[in-house]
Amino acid sequence: MKDKAWFNVVFMLICTAILTGILSGVYVYSRPLIQANTRLREIKAQLYALNIEVPADMSSTELAAYYEQIIEEKNVNGLTAYEYKTDDGRTQYAFPFEGAALWGDISGIIALDQDLKTVLGLDFISQNETPGLGGRIEEDWFKEQFRGISLYEEGDPVRYATVSDEGQIDAITGATSTSNAVLGLINETIKDIKSKMGGGN
Amino acid sequence: MSSYGEITKKTLWTENPVIRQILGICSALAVTNLVANTLVMGIGVSLVTAFSSLTVSLLRNTIPVRVRMMAQTLIIAFYVILVDIVLRAFLPDMSRALGPYVGLIITNCIIMGRCEAFAQTNKPLPSFFDGLMSGLGYTLVLTAIAIVRELMGFGTILGIQILGDWWTPWTIMVMAPSAFFVLASIIWAAKSVALKREISAKRTVSKGVQVSGN
User: How many angstroms separate the CA atoms of B149 and B173, rounded?
Assistant: First the structure.
């Protein structure tokens, strides 16, 4: 029986059915956990970008509840914006962005102040850049550079410091392609935000 | 068939998957610029190899010979996806750090190599052990490469600053090509040692023959 062609086919079908069945089971079981992790990551990215201090000993559920209290999700002209009102009455916004970098898609959050002229902060949610090179966009020194920078009115809102250009931030040495892709993505996002939010404000 | 001691010796040294069989080179280039990533990758590969070998060995009399490689690939893919799901659910930070590399465990030739070369003809427990130790042999070599690369590329080991400000990091050590140089040097050193041992072993044997001849 074992050398018959039909047995091979049936054997593979049964094997595939059993193994994928087990995987589906495990996936269904762990999906709530994975979704909670993804959600938590998004929340943390938004709070980081908006520069909101969170007590380090806060549990994930407390954090989620706290987040629901202070952040409001809005849709402005097809643009998702997370709104945060500061204690002194200013409205600040966090916007999700997504796009292609050097090796794969990057997604993250950029937060702008009420007048859309100042960046409050930036955080990345997912990226697939070279670890140790382009992957360093996730390091604090790179992200912290964006805190409080004023956007240029003319041309690209954010620029790297070069010999000929004053710029606001430094690129990553040895990771030119990733640096440029990330900056391009950020500038595109900011221009898009300005064109959609600008009129309404 | 093979004793556990023999398996250990073979997988870690005389038939080490990376330095003697030249397998798993793709990931040896990709993940070795940080020691932490290398260790997690090593654990992942070891576990997948061990459990794939165990499963293949358990089914070795059931799997039809003609489709055995298809079945092995299926089993390996099953464990790789399992590792990915577990990492995403319970170790999200590690999952983020490793990104696409977890999925790439499946392309590691060591896993299928051990299934074909060992698990197919051996009992489950020795197969499991063989897979685990092969993964360990792989991890040891990759960690050695990673230590050199992280130290020279960042001046750190496991993120802890080792070299002072006087050290200028070598960007080449962070990029994949440097793994070629480091890996080649390690293979060179290991082969030289192995060759010397072989020669001295032969000498002892030939001396022994002379003695018994007298």
Answer: 5
Closest residue in A to B77 (Cα–Cα):
A19
Q: Does B37 touch chain A (CB under 8 A)?
A: yes
B7 and B128 Cβ atoms separated by less than 8 Å: no
Residue A193 belongs to a domain? yes
Contact A34 B88 (CB under 8 A): yes
What is the rounded CA–CA span in Å between residue B88 and residue B162?
31
Partners of A26 on chain B (C-beta within 8 Å) are 82, 85
| Structural domain boundaries, residue A143 | 48-197
Is the predicted ipTM greater than 0.85, yes or no? no
User: Given B37, B64, B75, which is nearest A8 (Cβ)?
Assistant: B64
Domain spans in chain B, listed from the N-terminal domain onward: 4-213
pLDDT tens digits for B40-95? 889 989 999 999 999 999 999 988 888 899 999 999 999 999 989 988 898 887 78
